[in-house]
């Protein structure tokens, strides 16, 4: 028993040392690039605030639930009058402790900050609960999802998370390679099924709508609302197409050497990322040069780096 205690103490000491090292590195990073850290921190603060406001203005007054730890906390709040903020905080503690063992420490720290802020702001913004009441539950569900999703997306952009099912999902992904989305869906569905035993099934269904809107808004916020498209043009006349695109439309393009798998003929692949409004013009030019060219249009979630040749062009 004594040996086991000593081993545990050593492990705890190692983890504490690791935390101190990471914090020291963080401070150095802040000193080197304060704007980046400030932007990340502001995103987490703003995101946590929006989620808390959505909870107090829309979720609680209208009796909505949510998935994961938040949903369990809301049920305890409705049924037993538990303090919502501290319940969320308390239920997340064991998950974060487990998360330290499996996940990136930096992510855990930032997620802990986001979750802590969310819990505190919920408690200190309770005065908003009776300010707005809407009779249309569908509208409430959509608004709740939009605001919560915007907040959660900002937290994700700030390299954090809201804790709860996100931590569970990431641990399961690390251990069993099951996607985060799948795990979150299962956890949220389980909470909503549990809710049907205590609450009106309509509330569970409206909550499902809010959760769906939240997931979409979270993705859009964290990855961007841009309407950029990645285009691959595969052609025997790729260089001619690229020349027209770069000279006529003033767009940056990348040429990639390719080879047809069936015929073995040499191909030139033109890779370009553009706003959706320029798509038709690019297709027109490409097909005019080579009517047999193969064009693929791909949705883009995020674009970083690169140079913009022209700020604006005429598509006439």
UniProtKB/TrEMBL annotation:
Residues 253-305 form the DUF2179 domain. Its main location: membrane. The keyword rRNA-binding does not apply. The chain crosses the membrane at residues 76-98, 105-125, 137-156, 176-199. GO terms for cellular component: plasma membrane. The keyword Membrane applies. CDD domains: YitT_C. Signal peptide: none annotated. Coiled coil: none annotated. It holds the Pfam family YitT_membrane. It is a multi-pass membrane protein. Keywords: Cell membrane, Membrane, Transmembrane, Transmembrane helix. It is found in: Cell membrane. PANTHER family: UPF0750 MEMBRANE PROTEIN YITT, UPF0750 MEMBRANE PROTEIN YITT-RELATED. This is Membrane protein. It comes from Borreliella chilensis.
């Amino acid at each position: 028993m004594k040996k086991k205690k000593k081993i545990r103490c050593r492990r705890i000491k190692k983890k504490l040392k690791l935390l101190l090292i990471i914090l020291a590195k963080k401070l150095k990073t802040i000193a080197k690039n304060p704007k980046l850290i400030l932007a990340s921190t502001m995103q987490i603060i703003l995101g946590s605030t929006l989620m808390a406001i959505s909870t107090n203005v829309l979720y609680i007054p209208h009796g909505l639930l949510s998935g994961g730890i938040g949903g369990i906390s809301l049920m305890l709040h409705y049924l037993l009058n538990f303090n919502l903020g501290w319940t969320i905080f308390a239920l997340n503690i064991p998950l974060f402790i487990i998360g330290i063992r499996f996940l990136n420490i930096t992510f855990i720290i930032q997620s802990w900050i986001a979750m802590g802020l969310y819990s505190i702001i919920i408690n200190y913004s309770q005065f908003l609960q009776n300010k707005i009441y809407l009779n249309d539950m569908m509208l409430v569900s959509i608004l709740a999802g939009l605001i919560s999703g915007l907040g959660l997306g900002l937290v994700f952009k700030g390299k954090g998370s809201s804790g709860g099912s996100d931590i569970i999902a990431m641990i399961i992904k690390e251990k069993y390679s099951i996607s985060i989305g799948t795990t979150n869906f299962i956890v949220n569905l389980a909470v909503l099924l549990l809710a049907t035993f205590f609450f009106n099934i309509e509330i569970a269904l409206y909550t499902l709508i809010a959760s769906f809107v939240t997931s979409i808004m979270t993705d859009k916020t964290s990855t961007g609302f841009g309407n950029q498209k990645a285009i691959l043009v595969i052609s025997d006349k790729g260089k001619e197409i690229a020349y027209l695109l770069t000279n006529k439309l003033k767009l940056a393009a990348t040429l990639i050497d390719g080879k047809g798998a069936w015929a073995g003929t040499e191909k030139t692949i033109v890779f370009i990322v553009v706003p959706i409004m320029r798509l038709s013009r690019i297709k027109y030019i490409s097909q005019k040069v080579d009517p047999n060219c193969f064009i693929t249009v791909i949705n883009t979630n995020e674009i970083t780096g690169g140079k913009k040749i022209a700020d604006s062009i005429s598509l006439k």
